[in-house]
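so the lab meeting is tmrw and i was supposed to have these ready like two days ago... anyway. pasting both below. for each one the top line is the aa sequence and the line under it is the C-alpha cells. i havent really looked at them closely yet so no promises
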Amino acid sequence: MTSPRRGNPARSGSTALLGAAGLAGLLLVMELAPRLGLVDERYLPPASRIAAALAEEAGTPAFWTALTDTLIAWSAGLAIAVGAAVLAGIVIGSIPVLRSLTASTIEFLRPIPSVALIPLAVLMYGTDLGSTLLLVCYAAFWQVLVQVLYGVADVDPVAFETARSFRFSAWGRIRHVLWPTALPYVFTGVRLAASVALVLAITAELVIGSPGLGKEIAVAQASEAVPTMYALIVVTGVLGVIINLLARTGERRLLAWHQSVRGEVTA
C-alpha cells in the first residue's frame, strides 16, 4: 500500500517567493508614489515613514495595551460565540421539528449586519468592553451555527440508527457518530468566525471608541498623525493574517485524520 505523497516543496517555495515579491512590489509603490508626487503625502506617506511610525509605536506601552485590549475582545467574543453556536447547532440540528421551527428565524437574523447593532450596544454597555463583545459575538455566532447545522445534517442516518440499535446513549451517539462528522464543519465555521470577529472588534473600537487598536486608529486620524494611522492599520492587517494562519494550522493538525485534510497533502 503506497503512502500519500506530499505536496511539491519546489512549488510551495515558488509560491512563497512570489508572495514575497508581490509584497515587496507593493512597498516599493507605496514608497515611490508619494515621493514622485503621484499622490499627496498628507494622505499616503511613504512606506519608510509608516515603518518608522510603527517602530515608534511599538516602543510605547499604550500600543501594547491597545493590542491586548483588542485581542481580549476578539478572543472572548469568539470563545462565547463558538461555545453557544456549537451547543445550539447540535441541539437544533438533532431535532427535526426544532430545526423547522427555527429555520425562518435563523434566516432572518443571520443577514443583519452587526454594525447595525452599534446603537443598541452603546445603549446597553456604553463604550465598555461589553459593547465590543456584543458585536463580535453576534457576527461570529452565525458563522459557526450555520456550519454546525450543515455538519449535523451530513451525519449518515444509517450510522446513527446503528448506534441507536446498539443502545448507545444520546451522549454516546453525539460523541461517536455526530461529532466526528460535524467537526470539519465546526472548524470551517471557527476559521471564518475568527476573521469576522477581528473585523468587528476593530470596527467597534473605531466607531464606538471602546479600548483597542481601532480607537487608537481613530485618535491618530483625528490628530492628523497619518503615518501612525497607517502603521496601526498595518498592525491590524498583520494580526488578521496571523489569526488566519493559526486557524488553518490548527485545523490541519486536529483534522489530520479527515479525508478533506489528507487530500491537501497528496499530489
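ok protien two:
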Amino acid sequence: MTAGQITAIQPAQEAPDQAGVGPLGPKPRRISAGRIGLYAFLIVAALFFLIPVYIMIVTSLKGMPEIRLGHLFNLPGEPTFQPWADAWLHACTGRDCNGLSPGFYNSVKITVPSVVISIICASINGYALTFWPYKGANFLFGLLVFGAFVPYQVVIYPLIIGLSSVGLFASLPGIIIVHTIFGMPILTLLFRNFYAAIPVELFKAARVDGAGFWRIFFHIMLPMSLPITVVAVILQVTGIWNDFLFGIVFAGRPNWPMTVQLNNIVNTTTGVREYNVNMAATILTAAVPLLIYFISGRWFVRGIAAGAVKG
C-alpha cells in the first residue's frame, strides 16, 4: 500500500470521532402516552395527599370567626399562631387542659427505648441467624416471620393478663416491652436479609483471624449496617409514634402518648369545637415522623433495597 493510499484512509477512520456520532438507533420520544399517564397519576396522587395537608395548615392559622365563614380553601385573612399555642399548652384532653405537651414527652419516653432495644435485639437475631446457624434456626425464623402477620387485637388480652401478673400493666416499662416484642419480627427479617447479602468470605476471614461472635458483630457487621438501621429506625419510630391502640391499653393514664391525647382533644364534647386547634394539634402530632422521613428519606430506599436482596 502506497503512502497516498494510507493518507486517504486516515481521514475516513477519524471521521466518526470528529463528527461526534452518538449511540445508534432511534432517539427515545420525549413525550408519549405512557409518560403522560404516569405524570398524570403522580400529580393526582400528590394532590390527594397534599390537599388535606393544605387545608389543615390554613385552618390552623385562622381564627374561629373566619372558619365559620366556610371558605375552606381560602388563605387566612389574619394569620394567627394562637391555635398552635393552645394545642400545645392549653387544649383540654378530657379533664386535664395541659395541651399536647405531656403527651409529647410521654411519646418520647416510649419511643426512644422501644426503638433502641428492638433494633439491638433484631440486629443480633439477624446476625446470628445468618452467620451462626444452629439447630432449629430456620424454624425459629419462621416463627418470627409468622409473628409479623398476627393481628394485634388477637393477643391484647393475653398480654394484659401476662403484664398484670408481673405488675407491668399500665406502666411505662410495660408499653416499652409490648412495642419491642411487636417490632421484633419485621426488624429481624430486615436485618437477616441484609446480612445474607454480605459476602460470607468476610465472615470466614474474621473467623480465621480469631474473631468471635461479638467482635465480628461490633467491628464488622454493625458498621456496615447503617442503611438497614436507618430503615429500622424509620419503621419503628413511625409505628410507635403513631400507635393508638397499645398506647391507650398498656401505657396507663399518666403515660398516654401524643396520639391518645390528640384523640381526646378532637373528641372533647364540652364547649365550642375549635377546628383550628384540632388541626394544629394534628400537625404537631405528625411532625416527628415527617421530620424523620425528610431527614433520612434517601437512606430509606437504599436500606430497603439492600434488605430485600435475599430471603
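from a quick look at the 2nd one: The mean pLDDT is 86. Residues 101 and 134 are 48 Å apart (CA to CA). will dig more after coffe
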